[in-house]
Amino acid sequence: MNRVVVTGLGIVSSLALDREGTWSAMLAGKDGLGPLTRLSLPLEPAQLAGQVAMDPGRHQTLCERMALRALDEALDGLAHQGDPARIGVFQGAGTSGLPVAEAFLEERLAGHRGRASEPAYQSPSTVTDALARRMGAQGPRSTVMNACSSSLLAIGQAWERLAAGELDLAVAGGAENLCRTTYAGFSCLKAVDARKCRPFSRDRAGLNLGEGAVQLVLETLDEAQARGAVIYAEVLGYGASMDAHHPTAPHPEGEGAARAMAMALRTGGLDTSGVDLVSAHGTATPANDGAECLAIRRALGMAAEAVSVTSTKSQFGHTLGAAGAFGAAAAILALRDQVVSPTLRLEEPDPQCDLDCTPKQAKQRRLRAALVNAFAFGGNNVSLLLQRWEGR
Q1: How many CB atoms lie within 10 A of CB 318?
Q2: What is the pTM of this model?
Q3: Looking at residue 253, what is its pLDDT?
Q4: What is the number of structural domains in the chain?
Q5: Are 91 and 173 within 8 A, CB to CB?
Q6: Gap between the Cα atoms of 198 and 235, Å rounded
Q7: 180-188 and 98-109 helices cross at what angle (nearest 10)?
Q8: Which of the residues are catalytic?
């Protein structure tokens, strides 16, 4: 199998429109959560979200525009000279073009004809296709709609194809923007907190929704070294599992989540003692956080005592289909800079969340490898294993 490395990383977030601006703000303990302005939903009790300071383009949805901006940063001028049939694009999708359909429906309900051509040309693969066109990629394209584990599964799929020698380069990640359907839906489930979310806290009451995009450039190690690319981290493998427990709630003991983490470790050939960081799913919902901490203990055993855990959702909110890619980005930058981003507003931990969840402030420490978790509705669990690049 080929070794696979990350050679590009682009981020568009509610904290900043680029990678380093986002990362600096994260380490400074800032969040991108604020009053809801993207949508007008005055009857919803929660009026808070992580919103990106961008609008749709003239011929682009906001999802496309954010994804393309993140891609351009990740590519950093790269013009791949190889076979375009060996370049793949793998994306996690959630709402995708749904806001366009919502706008059309709103027009019709208001008695206007609207432009039916706009929603007609939207599909879950719209962002994937736009990225492929930008790159001239003629290899496999995959659009994963696996709820909140979508983009992490997409990264795992890209790793598989590269490791198997079927591709030389791949772009993987996800983009998500706020829309009425998801916002109202999570509100109906009573999963949204009217205050800023508090992962792992005793008084946590739900999530905040967010938007943004993360794109990774993945290459085989041989290709990356041949062109002298900057290497951010190595992807060792991933694991996926299914709870088969409940449509929305995780398994209370984290059984399936633990299997996904254990599978990632087996695939990557890494012992539990080699993991120093878990970039957690950490939604701040009452059911999720305790189950995830139990799962980490089940997967890592005694090694869990020495692991740092963090939740990016305390800073961006829950970016749904893009959430796994945001968790991966935070882990990659943590491995690069040897610092863990904080879990904000963690004043009094839940006794069930008895791990080092990096409360309130960033933490400098030695980081060799990281697990990234994304656990979706339906019990769809994905865990990605990353390793710090040491130059060999």
Answers
A1: 30
A2: 0.95
A3: 83
A4: 1
A5: yes
A6: 30
A7: 90
A8: 148, 281, 318
Tell me the residue range of the domain where 371 lies. Answer: 4-388
Q: How far apart are CA 286 and CA 350, in angstroms?
A: 10
Residues 6+ apart with CB under 8 A from 218: 4, 5, 6, 7, 155, 158, 159, 162, 169, 170, 171, 172, 235
Residue 154 in contact with residue 90, Cβ under 8 Å? yes
Q: What contacts 311, CB < 8 A, 6 or more positions away?
A: 199, 200, 280, 281, 282, 283, 284, 343, 357
Residue labelled with tokens 């050939």: 269
Which CATH number covers residue 26?
A: 3.40.47.10
Q: Report the C-alpha gap between 216 and 221 in whole angstroms.
A: 15
Identity of the residue numbered 119:
P
Predicted pLDDT at 120: 59
d(CA 361, CA 136): 42
Q: What is the pLDDT of residues 321-348, one digit of tens each?
A: 999 999 999 999 999 999 999 999 999 9
More confident residue, 14 or 377: 14
